[in-house]
Amino acid sequence: MRKINDYYSKKAKKNKYPARSVYKLEEVQQKYKFLRRGDSVLDLGCYPGSWSLFAAEVVGPKGIVVGVDLQQADRSPRPDSAPIHWLTQDIMEPELIGAVRKYRPAFKVLISDLAPKTTGNRWADAQKSLILVRQTLMLAEELLLNKGHYLCKVFQGEDFPDFVEEVKKKFVMAKVLKPKSSRVESREVFVLGMEFKKHVID
Ligand SMILES: C[S@@+](CC[C@H](N)C(=O)[O-])C[C@H]1O[C@@H](n2cnc3c(N)ncnc32)[C@H](O)[C@@H]1O
Q: Does the keyword Transferase apply (predicted)?
């Protein structure tokens, strides 16, 4: 296991990404191609910035990336990438929607690698994660374009099946994914929702 972690950490360093987590996003992108040239992307929990940098490269100069985190990110996008706007904000605060809308009224893709500060207590950590995850789904409802896409990291707890059902209702296609670069011993998985059904009221 350690070998795999070292492999992705070294690869990230070599390719000048600040975090190995970029390879989880890359793997989902390779399989589902949910990020496209010209897309607008909202990245929640973006610090230190690997996902935003990767997304900005994929969507290219006609796209845009807005990254949000409690911690201040400041990396410059690579050449031939979309501009990245870094916001230092709490995603739980209602002001976030207005702050994000200064850049785009709505987004084609919302990605979230948010992780709460863990306590070591599995149940408590899963609950904290679920609060953040539910907030990302609420933000997706506000900020995603019709037929937009959603990718969210979740630490599986007892409410996880209910959350997946919610995503299934709101998107044409929903999948639970465990990328190879995600530690096997970790309870993290990624929920992908493709083609948001903007006007479905349940
Ligand atoms: C695993 S890191 C993200 C790594 C990032 N995707 C990358 O590739 O560089 C999770 C982030 O979630 C952020 N976070 C946790 N709770 C948050 C909240 N309420 N609002 C904004 N960001 C939060 C943390 O500050 C942390 O930087």
A: yes
